[in-house]
Specification:
Elements (H helix, E strand, L loop, with lengths): L3 H20 L3 H26 L5 H31 L14 H8 L2 E2 L3 E2 L6 E2 L4 E2 L5 H6 L1
Antiparallel strand pairs: 1-4, 2-3
Helix pairs in contact: 1-2, 2-3
């Protein structure tokens, strides 16, 4: 068997995984893309091990260690994603800029800002209209109203 076939397949798998890491917004899909990249590396390790006819089969042994580390990584990663989802209510990566962010920062987005006072053209007095302007409600707050 030629080395080019598994090498091209591994390169395609790695590129698909890299695209998934860079383009996806969901944390679980990003973890799946990382696993796809690790599987591409495992395919390369086994293919080069067979091609080099290594008597110790070090490529296959390294692949077993990589699979064990990937299983541990996905377990810890899913635990973190579930904890963040329970705490924040979303697993979207672009909404999770800072993990130390508290609910006070989210309430700042939900607060409304009052309109500036308007000056009466005839009398020169300023009057407060008391109207509020929606500056950035979240979808959850809009659904509640």
């Amino acid at each position: 068997m030629h080395l080019a076939y598994p090498a091209v397949l591994a390169a395609l798998l790695f590129c698909v995984g890299l695209y998934g890491v860079l383009a996806r917004r969901n944390a679980i899909l990003v973890l799946m893309s990382v696993e796809l990249m690790l599987n591409a590396v495992n395919l390369n390790l086994v293919a080069f091990d067979v091609w080099l006819r290594d008597t110790l089969h070090s490529g296959q042994a390294l692949t077993l260690f990589t699979i064990a580390i990937a299983a541990a990584e996905i377990g810890i990663g899913l635990a973190i994603v579930l904890a963040v989802y329970r705490n924040r209510g979303t697993s979207a990566i672009d909404r999770l800029r800072d993990t130390a962010e508290t609910d006070a920062a989210e309430t700042l987005l939900d607060d409304t800002a009052t309109l500036p006072d308007r000056a009466d053209e005839n009398t020169g007095k300023t009057e407060n209209t008391g109207k509020t302007e929606n500056t950035g409600k979240t979808k959850k707050a809009e659904a509640a109203t």
